[in-house]
Amino acid sequence: MRLASALLTGLGLHLGGGAVAQDLQGRDTAGNWRVTHHTSHGIWKSICDEREEHGALKQRCYIRWVDVYAGHPDFGALFTFITPRENAPAGQHDVMFGPELGTVFLPDGFVVKQDQEIIWHMSGVGCLLLADCELDASQSDEALQAMLNGSGLEFSFIDPHFRRFDLSWSLEGFSDAFETYQTQWFLRQ
Length: 189
Known about the structure:
four-stranded antiparallel beta sheet, 4 helices, 42% strand, 189 residues, six-stranded antiparallel beta sheet, single chain, alpha+beta, Immunoglobulin-like
């Protein structure tokens, strides 16, 4: 339940406000979104969906990956979304990472690598210590560029249950997912 809430809240915040992740009755659910595009590129998913809102068609597209690193009863997941930047010129995107509340990243524990060289590292204290990983425009641009050029994301952290995890996400397929996502979003504009 906590993951679903975090995913929906994170997606909602990134797609134009918390209400977007709610159904039309205000419940925290994906509601009546209809998937109009879904492709997989390695671990990366390019997705578009739509629904009617107050007589108008609302459309959205995003890249998503959710890593469920621990099951019940001490559930844990880390996710990311890449979305079109709201109220910005076409071609600008926001990046959000969603660790579990209470996650603390270790030093150099949130990086993008090209082979074994670090080409980007998370520097936001709010993310590293407080699990608030919604990036601003500049941080999003830097993270996205690194993800397009890198070979992998690596995370080392202590989760809310005081367990250490070391996760690696391959960036193989990310560039293809990004190209597909951009193409699909432009088709809907």
